[in-house]
Amino acid sequence: MDTFAGIEITRLRDFILSRQKNEGGFAAVPSLPATIQDTFQALEQLALLDLHSPVQLPAAVNKSGLRQLLERYRGDESDSLPPRLLYYLTRIAAFAGEEISFSSPQPSSDESYENLYFLSRISPVPLPEDWQPGRQTWKFCRELYFGLSLKTGTFENLDILTTWLRACQNGDGGFGFFPATTSYIENSHYCLASLAILGASPGNIKAAREYIISCQTAAGGFARTGKAAPFLDSSWHALLALKALTK
Questions:
Q1: Model pTM score
Q2: Which value, to the nearest 10 degrees, does the dihedral of the CA atoms of residues 48, 49, 51, 52 take?
Q3: Could you give the 3-state DSSP secondary structure of residue 200?
Q4: pLDDT tens per residue, the chain (247 residues)?
Q5: What is the Cα–Cα distance from 9 to 205, expressed in whole angstroms?
Q6: How far is CA 39 from CA 31, 188, 224, in A?
Q7: Can you tell me whether residue 51 is helix, strand or coil?
């Protein structure tokens, strides 16, 4: 099955481009200024749609504006940014045909899985000598996803993790933060991506796909649930959830 079968690609693309600002970058809603996260997520969605659409979709992105956005975060402006946003800036730069690099700070002994993941994507990061996996706890599917993505070999009993992730799926096909919690599109992304890393599938593949597709709104973008407003963030999670599901 085609990765994005069942979704309205043209409407989604129009929704994404409607969030592009004349001065460069993308915003959560047209009335707000561009942000790093919205810009990264918009660009990645357009790239994913280009790869999987039967007809190549022209990006129609203001790359000159992207370069102006990047200029705001060169030098001291980037010092206070979390690793996640620093990584997003490197990807925005690559899309704009620019180079931007950051020196990754040495992670602490109790660094979160999420920060370690993004630090490792910016540049190779050796774990500190006193780093111990037991200090990095996880409760939510998002935290587990970043831990599994690090591939540090710190997780044991992978069958138990697979069972836990499958238990996060609800009757509506979506996934909760952990078992017996409300379904949201971002949880579907993290759970399905984690299952893909483990080489496993959800208990109900058909329902998982139907839940994701049901979150696309009349505006073209996806919402966190079927009854919410669409945002670039939710649309990004939806496409990555579908990508993980096909694995």
A1: 0.91
A2: 110
A3: coil
A4: 688 989 999 999 999 999 999 989 999 999 999 999 999 999 999 999 987 766 565 668 899 999 999 988 876 567 788 889 999 999 999 999 888 877 766 777 677 888 888 988 887 766 655 555 545 567 899 999 998 888 655 667 788 999 999 999 999 999 999 999 999 999 999 999 999 999 999 999 999 999 999 999 999 999 999 889 999 999 999 999 999 998 7
A5: 21
A6: 15, 22, 19
A7: helix
